[in-house]
Structures are given as C-alpha cells and as structure tokens.
Design a protein that fits this description.
The chain is α+β, with helices and mostly antiparallel strands. The protein is built from 19 helices and 38 strands. It folds into five domains: 22-48 and 705-798; 69-189, no CATH class; 241-335 and 457-654, Haem peroxidase domain superfamily, animal type (Myeloperoxidase, subunit C, Orthogonal Bundle), CATH 1.10.640; 341-445, no CATH class; 805-914, no CATH class. The strands form ten sheets. Strands 4, 5, 6, 8, 9, 10 and 13 form a seven-stranded antiparallel sheet that branches. The protein has a five-stranded mixed sheet with strand order 1-26-23-21-28, with no helix packed on it. A hairpin with a 2-residue loop joins strand 4 (79-81) and strand 5. The longest helix has 29 residues, at 432-460. The protein is globular.
Amino acid sequence: MPRRARSRASGNARMSIPLAAVQLRLHLIALGALSGVGVLTVLAMLAPLAGAHHSAPPSSDGVAELRGEQIWTSTMTVGSNGRMLGFGTFGGRDVGRLSQSTFTWRGTTYTVANLWSNGTPGSADSWSVVIDISPPLSLEAEEYGCLTLQLGHLWLNLADGRGNGRQFFWYDVELSWSSGASVEVGLRQFPDSFETRSITGWGNNLQRPELGMAETQLLRVAPVAFAFAMSGAMQDELPDARMISNSVHQQGELRPNRTRATDMLWQWGQFLDHDISLTPSTVISSQDSIPIPQGDREFDPFGTGLRFIPFNRSQFDPETGLSPDNPREQLNLITAFIDASNVYGSSSDRLSELRTNDGSGRLKTTDDGRYLPLNPPSLEIDDGGRRRNGLFLAGDIRVNEHVVLTAMHTLFVREHNRLAEQIAIEHPDLTGHEIFELARKIVGAQMQVITYQEFLPLLLGPDAMGPYEGYDPDVDAGIANEFSTAAFRVGHTMLSPALMMIDEEDDVEQVPLVELFFNPPAIRTAGIEVFLRGLSTQLAQGIDLALVDEVRSMLFGPPGSSGRDLAALNIQRGRDHGLPRYNMVRTAYGLPPVGSFADISSDPEVQQALARTYADVNDLDLWTAGLAEDHVPGAMLGETFRTIIADQFRRLRDGDRFWFESDPCFLANPEILAEVRSTTLADIIRRNTLIDDEIADNVFGGMPPMVSISGPNQAAAEGSAAVFRLDRSGPTTIPLTVNVRISETGATLSEWADRTADATFGAGQATTTLVVETNADSNPEYDSTILAMIADSDTYERSAESNAADALVVDDDGVDLHLEPGVNVIRWAGLDGVDIVSTLTGNGDADVSAEIVAIFEWDETAERWLTFFPALESVPGLSSANTLRTLRAGQTYQIRATQALVWRIPRPDLMIAVLGER
C-alpha cells in the first residue's frame, strides 16, 4: 500500500479558552524614530493553525440536581393465571404477592393493585406490562417522564406507559418471569430538572403526546399521488425506474464535490437518518418488481427481456389505502427526534437488551469494550436477506448494512460508556439508571450539536436553518414522506466506488464498496480507526444525478444475484409512497413550479438527459429532478431538496421539547450545556479511538474558513495594550481557535523572541479579539517593533485580502508603489535584485529614504521577521550581514512609512502585490 503524505499538527499544548478575548503580556519595544511609541502590526495573509481547538469532554459537574428519590420499593413473588404472570387479581383470582403494596408520596397513600406481564402478547398492539395504582397518581403532564417503574433490572419510563395516572401500559417489553420467581420492583422519581425522554418518543409533546413517537405515520406536506397510493399494483404511464436510471443516473469518471466535503458527510447523513426514520417493507411481489430494459448491460446481458429487479413495497398503516380519500400512509418505526435512538433503540425490549443492567449505566460491548455485542435471536436485525450469523446488536436494526456504518455505531457506544464511567467515578452516589440516563441525554445532545453545527451548514449553507427561538408545541417534529423518501437520499450520489482505509502508519488501502456490505467481520479484523480515518480524508462525490455502478448496479451484490440498482429503487420507492411529481412538491413547499428543463439545470447535458427520458417537465419524479437542480450558492444541493431538508430539520429542532438548548437538565447545569455545545465529531473520535491529530478538527471537510486580522494600524505606548480584531468568513457554526504568533524584534539578534497566543471564536461567532498588553522596556534606545500574525496552516486558508488597486501605478518605465502612513504589507512577485537604497534615494526621482523607517522580510523557514532596513550599523551586536539590501522574488515584506509617499521602482519587469491593510 502506498504511503500517504500527511501534515500533523504541532504537539504544543493548546489553551482551551471559553472567552473571545485572549490577553498576552509582552515587552513593548519601540523604534527610537517613533519617540517611544511602538507600532503593533498584523500580517493578515496567513492562516490559523490546524487542530487548534480540542473541546474538553463533557463532565458531569452539578449533577446533584439529577439524583432521584425511591418512592416505592417491594419484592414481588410472581404468580400465574394462564398467560398472565405477576401480582394482583385476574379472572376473579388473586395471584402473586408483594412484600409492600402501598407507598406514600406527596402526602397521599397509594396502593398497587395489579402488576402483570402478558406472557403471550400476541398481536403487535397487545400490551406487555400493566400496572394499576389506586387512587390515580396526581401528575402534571410533564411529570410522567420523571417517574420510572423498576422491574428487576428493567426500568420503564411512565411516559412510555401512555397512562392516565391509574393504569400504565407498555407494549414492547419482553420479560423472562416464571411463576414463583422473586423480582425487585419499585417506583423512582427524578427531579423536574432531569425529566428523561421516553424510549418510544411518547409524551415529548404534552398536548399531542403521539407526535414524533415510534410506529406512527410519516406526515405529508405535499398531496398524495393517488395512482400509487392504493393497495393495487404499481402501474403508471411514467418511464420504468431502471430505464430512468440508465438514461439519467449513470456515472462515468469520478466527480469529487467542489466543496471538498469528505465521505464523513454522507456517512453522518446515513447514521443520522437511522436515528430519525425507518419504514419497514413487505414481502416481494412480482407485480411490483422493477422491469429491466431488454439487453440491459448489467442485468440482462443476454437480451431476454424477462429480468426484473426485486422490489418490496413499504408497509403502511392497515387502516389506510382503502379509498381515494384514505390513501396508503407509510409508518416510521422509530422515533422522529434526534435522540440517539440508533444507539439506544425505540422500544423497551431493545433498550433492555442493549444495557448491561449491572448498575454501571453502561451499554453492552465485547469483553474488551471495543466492539458491539452480537444480536440475540429474539431481536429483529437486518441481515440483507443473507441470514448471516455473527451480526452486531445496536439501537437500529440496520447496523450491519455497511462496515463504516457499524464503525459509527461502535464509536457512539464507546462514547456512552466513556461518559458513564466518568459520571460513576465523579458521582458514586448516583444509581446505575441515573448514570445511564445522564449519559444517554448527553449523547443525544451531542448528535444534535454535530448535526446542526457541522453537518447541516456544510450541506445546506450557513444560513438555511435560521436561529433557534425556543420550543414550540405547535410544531410537529414528525418525519415528512418527501424528506425520507426523496430529499434525504442525496447522499447516495456522494458514494465513491471504493472506501479509503488508513492505518496508524498512514498506509492507504482502497477497498471496493461492494465488499463491505453486510460484512461485520471486517470491523473485528481491521478495527474502526482505519475506516474513520478514511471517512475523514477521502473526498465524497458531488451531489448530482450520477451514481457510481457499485450502488447503481451492484448494491448488496453482483447484478443478477443479490445486486440491485439504488437509483431505480429510490425512484420506485417514491412512487410506492405516493409522492407527487416534482412540480407539485415544489408548489406544496412554497416554491414556484418550473416551466422547462432549463429552469432546473443550466447544464445542457442535464437538460437533454431529462428531456429524452420524460415527455414533459410536469412528469418528473421528485428524486431525479431534485438531484438535477443547479446548486443554491453556498449549498451543496438545489433549491427543492434544500427547502425540504431545512423544513424537516427546523421542525425536528423547534418541535422537540428535549432539544439540548431547552432541556431542563442542561438549563440547570450550564457547564454541561457549554461543553456539549462545543463538542465536534472529531472530539468524539479522538476520545474513543487511537486517532489523534491525523484527522482535521472538522472531519466533514468543506472549504476552510477564511481568517484575517484586520482593523486600522495601531500604536501603543509602553505599558499600554493594543486590541487586534480577528474576523472569519465561511462556516462559523463550530468553535475555532486560531494560533497567533507575536514576534518581538529587538535591536540585537539575542533579543529576538517568538510568543504565541490562541484567539478563540465561539460557535456562531464571526469576530473575536486579541489583547496584547505591553510592559515598559528598560532600554528604550534599543527598542524595535512588535508584530502579530496568524500562524500558517494546511487546514485553514489564508485570508483573502483584496488587493488595493489604487496602491499601484504601473507604466513602461516602472512601478509606483503608493504607501500610507504606518504598515504596508506586500509580496514581491517579480525578479530578484531591486537595490533598496538606490531606489529609495530616487535614481533621479524623489528621495524617500527618510520616510521609510524600516523594511522587514518574512523568513518562511524560521517563521520570523529576520532582516530589516536601514543598516543600523551603530547598534551594538548588529552586523551588516543582517541588513536587508535587496528585495527578493516571492518574499513578503512589511514597509513602515512615517507619512504617505510614493516609492518609485524603475523596473517594469517586477510586480508588487499589496496583500494587507496599511
């Protein structure tokens, strides 16, 4: 494998500074010619240091507010009455015993009348556990999430019980009780500041508790397309999906995205998608399979005309699909909220299987803590139809679909366990359940922060979401059909034919994508680090119409075997779900309909591909047309998909009562909120793997921010302070620390000094300041100058300072360089050899040597201003060898002028570029 060249960040320690202003105290050394007043200058062309900001891991300071109170505890001797197991009266007969069936809470005495497990629950909507309490618990709506029922090692949130105070039912619990068994049971109350999410999402919205919960319908923004929304076969006059794929979606050469986003962008999109949406499929029906054009190169090479791509229609609410007034409505089996349900599940039985249930608050892993546990036979898992053994268990059933997806699941289980261990050490008085819930709450918040501060600004552009204005109970956070079935499938076009694997020695291997589908052994063999490094390094393909053949013809296997066409499946899925056509969706989302293919794309080839495939612009399938659109400036995709995705994530944020900026737990513990808010995906990778600074601080890539030090030239008397302003453009949603180098140029070489300081931009902050305080110098007669500049970097781009057009006047005989009082920064872009003294003294023109105080040259190797003019031969310790005599090509200079002047350079073959403010 070839070696990969990589530039590592410096190993020097970095300050973690929460405030925008950074103070640094230096000696001020002033040029004697300026009467003891130093000119503090900024070179605004260099870039901030890569890897400068390593956010601290979230701590659990202040969790005294989170400790719960046990309000009832008892031992139940399990009895049996047919299929019912537990305590209470069933069928006129008392069964089972409780050591303590009464408890007093808030001045009222309550009795537990029944506590049953339904041993054979039968249909999916049959309850599994029920508890009867008399009189009914007097609870406000938001208090249900503060009470949990303990059943042995299992904890059930009362918000999941969908109860009325007297009876609570749980529908997704599997218990291994047997008659005569002894089970510890009880009720525990958390403080209001620690209300926890229900695992099913029930009760997030107190007015309409079903909004966003698991096993509810996808919502629709656009009207349904009735031709596909009934229970019959999928038949329509539109072109077949595989034909469209062949005509429009083929990709030839690789097309890396111009934004320089990495593969981590699409991988996070998939991981996130598996947190908010899962629509189950039915069995395959031949009448719904996708016809393959006769002679299709991959799927029908012998030209039989009898081949099909298997297609499973989505399951739907059985009470729908019965009439035009009641079309099919598909289901979302998991919670809509960004709550890390892909880590913890959306049902109590899956959550119970994921937890260690040993009082540690941890999630199960292999014995060494490195990998996920194996999925038990009792829990559903997606095996790709291959009936594999040795599949991993996770909160989402799709965990084994691809090794990089498995790596992400593994990473976040490690993060949960790291948090749980940290919380347990710092707060040994918390119960295992409290440890678990706090770690779960933090992990869910981290996913929100990464999504909204790193992922979405890169995908949609920096201003797509708008500011957060607080929780709105009138907002439905449910997943829109147009979003999950079309718009959020843009990541499929970003896949490359191979994934990059990078080991700890920086050796690179390209592994074909098709070899890594449903291949969990690859994780155990290679570890997750090689895949995470690769995801953070390799550029993703651009978001456009083209899909590589590895997913367009070989998804999950070779053509004609298990291989499928992801583009054709997406088109067919949109029709299966009754998505209306492109123009109707645009209208529903408040966008004007298009009148021609040219209105969609300015690319003639795209226009022609659409025109030869669809008879009319009003026939376009949403997924295909959305990908064809010209990108919105600053975004990676077109207007329609940007609008749909922004709408969905705005509702997921504003309609979530437990959004991290509104969650009572974080509001009561602002130090945890601050640490969560500053977390990046790179932080989580570094905390839980062997990976360090070989990945960028922003693993999603994208064009780096432009950072500059700006503002007028400043002078500071000895003992005073100068304040420099730093500005950044581009992405501002994540914190950024810029390393600023302060150079002190003394009168002798022994007095040179280099100091650095970190100037920190907070999340959303485009401007920050650097305060340089100075001390009076004991030797003012030897004073010189203080320089401040941004350290160079290969991760963040240099400031794009505009050239001052009026600074240069060029004619046939030479160049007039117009200088302003103070500091002028130039890069000499021409030939070597301009003699400084002769040109300053005029060569027959005006003598301006007296007005030029000094000229400094930047040494890239030493990273210092090493030479200067004029020749201060009289200064002790300074030899003429250190005196700048000529200007050299490609070098950067600071020219200090006492007044406005014109420096005439009679060499027309030399060019000067003005780089910074003067």
